[in-house]
Write a structure and sequence with these properties.
Length: 715
């Protein structure tokens, strides 16, 4: 945050303080705040139960105790076995990463340690904790877990308890005891903390003048409650199948391990993951528990932001020529949210210059659009595309006229809004009942070339179009189509392919390329081939072709690719019968499912692992590798957000005690390599992971989607 903004935030905090608000702020405490623990993802069942709030600003022991009390806490008493699991070591590591911003041993001038004390600076930083020593001294602890007596008037950082409970889907404590306020711009945001992170929910980030217009970032003002999620955008809710939501829905949610004080000279701002949900541009929302950002923020030491954006007709409908209804309103919302983050995220502990945009499915499609969007330039510095769909409307964008004919005309017919007068059509659509509009049998959900947010029909690899050149991580599930295809009870492969709108001749004419597995269950074998074709045609082939083109042209500075070969499907999707196919089959030793057995690794089967939320959903641990694999994936994703290299730093893993990820890397025996156009490989994500050549070359070629697709004449 710029110095002027820090000063403004300090003035706002002071102004709110004069109103008698008792909720503590980093400004009122005069210290930044950090929630620190060893988050092993076991939640309340973890054997590593200790968690502290770090008061980073040096102060006397009495002042530190007072600040802990203002937070509803007290100075921390370390456990007797802390040496065995010293999560405090990370404090010294992050201080080194920040150029030595921590507080080391004070001098022997009456404020420092006793001359007889044998330890020195090699034992790390020093923090006040609970307890008193000899001759009126106070207890302190080093980041190497050594405790001793210290003059109580020395000015040191301190460690408070954090007794806030872990939040969950069905219970979250937002009482005054755990509330925290943050000032940004001319606003004061009241959020709260749980056991693992600070949470600011339902913040309005943007506004727009009327239906079917672009949004703009909202300048925050006043007292803003951020204690609960905001309204979702108008949609048929994918969790409840209910026509729900509001047009006043431009909200975001922030999960942070750290809140800086305006008085901190060098705040330890964290890299930011800006998450865009999927849902075919017709449903989904940032408050879905699947991508609750608490575990990823806590274990990864990053800030996570999730957003809502307008969907369906409200987000993408194109009007007649000359009306200004140019679609992509949902894309404009994403840019508005990025602008809000750029202006405000520093107050919540995030680095506005180190934002990675990420999304899955339609969220990945959004990231792809933002990679070539001029207004998004400079608002992010890295990108993640997870399961980026590749039907024409996702990779190649229609013109306004094409979209009007394809999706708007059917909507006009169903609403009765069709007219020879363009203004009449627009007025009718703008005034049409929102719930009824959502319930129509036709919907607008295509990104288009609107001339403002998207200016070219596709990403160009020859340098002629606009591209925001940032590091890119992308990949797919092994069996994306397993949750999307219709299960056809047939022994006729052609019928199954046709029912799923997939190419028939290119598959039937190449039986050696698309062989039936021969499992003995012909219907399942037919579905297996159908899923393979749909995965390749709708996701994989053009995604690896994108990675290959990026690597070949050096269009982006970094290019990594992955394929998930282990998954844990979200509990509410897909519906039966696909649901059973996308979950690991149970056996006597694995009643909840054996992830090492064969099953479809389906679309969306990566999300509860990437965000560490399958326990939040109440899903069981299926085998001894479920939690270590989730730890490894979170460590890899957060490594990408921090460094744009998905290989975690071994030193970081050591100081954080992340032994399972260290073990995975040793078992794997190789690092995740960038895509090399001369011999392209991907990371197969399983336990342990491995580096493998791009698969499915013959299949993609048979489908007319070869690896060099983007270099073919006429493409």
């Amino acid at each position: 945050m710029a110095a002027s903004n820090l000063y403004k935030a300090s003035l706002v905090a002071a102004a709110f303080s004069t109103l008698g608000l008792a909720v503590p702020t980093p400004a009122s405490l005069g210290s930044d705040l950090q929630i620190l623990l060893h988050n092993d993802l076991y939640g309340n069942a973890s054997a590593r139960g200790d968690v502290v709030i770090v008061l980073g600003t040096p102060q006397t022991q009495q002042a530190a105790a007072s600040d802990c009390s203002a937070l509803g806490e007290s100075l921390w008493t370390p456990p007797s076995d802390l040496n065995a699991d010293n999560f405090l070591a990370y404090l010294a590591y992050q201080s080194g990463q920040q150029g030595g911003s921590g507080h080391w041993w004070p001098t022997r001038d009456g404020r420092g340690y006793p001359p007889s004390y044998p330890f020195g600076p090699s034992h790390g930083e020093v923090y006040f904790i609970a307890g008193s020593g000899n001759n009126g001294a106070c207890k302190v602890i080093t980041t190497s877990a050594q405790t001793f007596d210290m003059n109580c008037n020395a000015k040191l950082p301190a460690l408070c308890t954090n007794t806030a409970p872990l939040s969950g889907i069905n219970y979250t404590d937002t009482s005054a005891r755990v509330q925290t306020q943050v000032a940004s711009g001319n606003a004061m945001y009241t959020g709260f903390r749980d056991k693992i992170s600070f949470r600011f929910l339902g913040i309005q980030y943007g506004t727009y003048p009327q239906r079917f217009t672009y949004s703009s970032a909202l300048e925050p003002t006043g007292d803003v409650s951020a204690l609960e999620f905001g309204a979702i955008c108008r949609q048929i809710d994918g969790l409840t199948n209910v026509n729900d939501g509001s047009e006043d829905c431009l909200h975001l949610n922030i999960y942070s391990p750290y809140l800086p004080s305006p008085k901190t000279a060098k705040p330890m701002l964290k890299p930011v993951l800006f998450w865009i949900h999927g849902g075919a541009y017709i449903n989904g929302y940032g408050s879905d528990p699947t991508w609750d950002g608490g575990n990823l923020a806590s274990r990864g030491d990053i800030v996570v932001v999730t957003i809502n954006y307008r969907l369906g007709d409200f987000g993408f409908l194109v009007g007649p020529n000359g009306t200004g209804l140019n679609g992509n309103y949902g894309i404009s919302d994403q840019v508005s949210a990025l602008q809000w983050v750029k202006a405000n995220i520093a107050a919540f502990g995030g680095d506005p210059n180190h934002v990675t945009i990420g999304g899955q499915s339609a969220g990945a499609g959004s990231v792809r659009a933002l990679l070539q969007s001029p207004p998004a330039g400079g608002l992010f510095a890295g990108a993640i595309l997870e399961s980026d769909p590749s039907p024409p409307s996702y990779s190649y964008y229609l013109s306004l006229d094409q979209e009007y004919a394809a999706q708007t005309v059917p909507i006009l017919n169903l609403t009765g809004c069709g007219s020879s007068n363009s203004a009449t059509e627009v007025a009718c659509l703008r005034n049409y009942n929102a719930s009824a509009l959502v319930g129509l049998a036709a919907v607008a959900n295509n990104v288009v070339v609107d001339g403002t947010y998207v200016v070219t029909p596709a990403i160009t690899f020859n340098g002629t179009g606009h591209v925001n050149k940032v590091p890119l991580l992308m990949g797919t599930m092994r069996d994306e189509g397993g949750s999307l295809d219709t299960v056809v009870e047939t022994t006729n492969l052609s019928l199954s392919l046709a029912k799923n709108f997939l190419p028939v001749a290119s598959v039937i004419d190449n039986p050696s390329v698309f062989p039936l597995p021969g499992s003995g269950n012909v219907t399942l074998d037919i579905y297996n081939v159908t899923t393979r074709v749909s995965t390749d045609a709708a996701f994989y082939c053009l995604d690896v072709a994108t990675a290959y083109a990026v690597a070949k042209t050096h269009l982006l500075p970094e290019m990594y690719y992955y394929q998930f070969n282990r998954s844990y499907q979200i509990p509410y999707w897909p519906p039966p019968p696909n649901k059973a196919l996308c979950n690991a089959p149970p056996d006597a030793a694995h009643p909840a499912g054996n992830p090492d057995a064969e099953y479809f690794k389906c679309h969306s089967g990566d999300l509860t692992t990437i965000f560490g939320t399958w326990r939040r959903w109440g899903l069981p641990e299926r085998d001894e590798n479920d939690t270590p694999f989730t730890q490894f994936i979170i460590d890899s994703w957060s490594s990408w957000v921090r460094t744009w290299n998905p290989n975690p730093d071994p030193t970081l893993l050591k100081v954080r005690g992340y032994a399972n990820t260290t073990r995975e890397m040793a078992l794997a025996g190789s690092l995740w390599a960038q895509v090399d156009a001369s011999a392209p490989t991907l990371r197969k994500l399983q336990w342990p992971s491995s580096q493998e050549p791009f698969p499915e070359a013959a299949q993609c070629s048979a489908l007319g989607l070869p690896l060099d697709y983007f270099f073919l004449p006429g493409v």
